[in-house]
Amino acid sequence: MPLTSRSPLLLAGFLAAAGVAHFAAPASFDAMVPRALPGNPRSWTRVSGAVELALAAGIAAPRTRQLSAQATALFFVGVFPANLKMAYDWRTRPAPARALAYGRLPLQLPLYLWARAAARPTTG
């Protein structure tokens, strides 16, 4: 199977791992939830984890891949404020932690582009 055929499945695996992490270690995700959002952060953590798992399942299935990948691209845009909040909150942490927080910001662009690429119809 060529890499281009596996790429959506790798994206699905990435999303599934992230979704599971939201349930396995929710506290770190709770801290990223922007305070402007209503409700409690744990609810947002659970919802975003469930969304990631649903998107992973949708991308893994060829029939729903295109729509799910488009939704994933929008999801990556939607969670960017959480990454901004993390970068701001971690601005005084030790350099390795700051590097992690700041590194998440430009990472959103390749994730978005990956999802867009996975949304393209396959030929053949």
TrEMBL record:
* Alphabetic keyword roster: Membrane, Signal, Transmembrane, Transmembrane helix
Q: Where in the cell is it found?
A: Membrane
* NAD as UniProt keyword: no
Indicate the secretion signal residues.
1-23
- UniProt xrefs under InterPro entries: DoxX
The record's section on Pfam families has: DoxX_2
Q: What does the record say about its membrane topology? A: Multi-pass membrane protein
Signal is among the record's keywords: yes
What name does UniProt use for this protein? DoxX family protein
Origin organism of this chain? Streptomyces glycanivorans
Higher taxonomy: Bacteria, Bacillati, Actinomycetota, Actinomycetes, Kitasatosporales
